[in-house]
Amino acid sequence: MVDARPEVRPAPRLRVIFLGPPGAGKGTQAARLAAWGKVPRISTGDMLREAIAAATALGKQIAPLMEKGALVPDQLLIGVVQERLMRDDCKKGYILDGFPRTLRQAEGFETMVGGDLTEEMLVFDVEVPRPELLRRLSGRRWCPACQSTYHVDNNPPKKDMLCDREGAQVIQREDDKEVAVARRLAEYDERTAPLIDYYRNRSRFYRIDGYRPPDAVFQELTSIAGGRAS
Ligand code: AP5
Fold first, then answer.
1. Which stretches of 3-145 are assigned E, i.e. beta strand?
2. CA–centroid distance, residue 2 to ligand 1 (Å)
């Protein structure tokens, strides 16, 4: 049967923050929402991994931290994001994936954009039970050329573990190995989870059940972002 509902369209100037633990599906959904809303996705994890791959001064400084699952210093991230938000493509909106991640970063972001804009931001807190997070992270594979993400069981590349877009061999991220994952989850609990209360009272905050198929999660996000959900 044909879906007769009108297409859900993004609100003008879509601005979103994704919160949620490692493996919750933030990157997967942020990429889809950015394409839907025709706004850039700003993934601090991807930006930092690009700096490491290019062996820039920043990349050399942060590589040992990221490999073991530790957070990169706040001041560095605030500077990187501030510079990125000044580009023209952010004027019509953006999707932040992986930032802010500490109270200090959230305060730095608010200083950057102002309190009014913070109130307008959509904040999606994507929640997934911990055993499922571990399953997703241990099975995740990643293309070092274009940063596309796969999963060995539920989203493998079409052919021989080669990236569908780049044809490169997909690999496991260093920080998806067991010890680093434990550290990332601990960092999340201690330093990122407090942002839930911070944004609950400051922005248009939505708790999203991320333990569902990606399409179901995406449909809820677009309903909210298109102004159709309550
Ligand atoms: P980052 O790259 O941001 O990693 P993360 O936050 O730990 O998030 P992940 O990429 O692990 O998970 P995700 O929620 O995006 O899930 P995904 O969609 O990939 O950061 C990495 C590191 O960079 C940090 O540890 C830190 O060192 C540094 N860093 C970055 N930002 C920083 C900041 N602001 N401050 C300080 N340091 C910072 O999905 C995971 C898997 O599950 C995939 O295989 C996917 O296919 C699968 N999947 C997704 N959705 C579903 C679904 N609905 N059902 C089943 N499987 C699914």
1. 14-19, 41-43, 93-97, 122-127, 140-142
2. 35
Tokens 């000044």 locate to 86
Q: Which of 48, 49, 77 to mutate for ligand 1's pocket (most ligand atoms within 8 Å of CB)?
A: 48
117-153 per-position pLDDT tens digit: 889 999 999 999 999 999 999 999 999 999 899 999 9
Q: Which of 65, 29, 47 is nearest to 210 (CA)?
A: 29
Give the homologous superfamily in CATH for domain 14-222: P-loop containing nucleotide triphosphate hydrolases (3.40.50.300)
Which residues are within 8 A (CB) of 160 and not within 5 positions of it... i.e. 6 or more apart?
Answer: none
Q: Does residue 185's CB lie within 6 angstroms of at least one atom of ligand 1? A: no
Global pTM value: 0.93
Please give the Cα distance from 139 to 44 (Å, whole number).
22
pLDDT at 50: 94
93 pocket-lining for ligand 1 (C-beta < 6 Å) = no
- Rounded to the nearest angstrom, the distance between the alpha carbon of 117 and the centre of ligand 1 is 25
In the chain, where are the structural domains located?
14-222
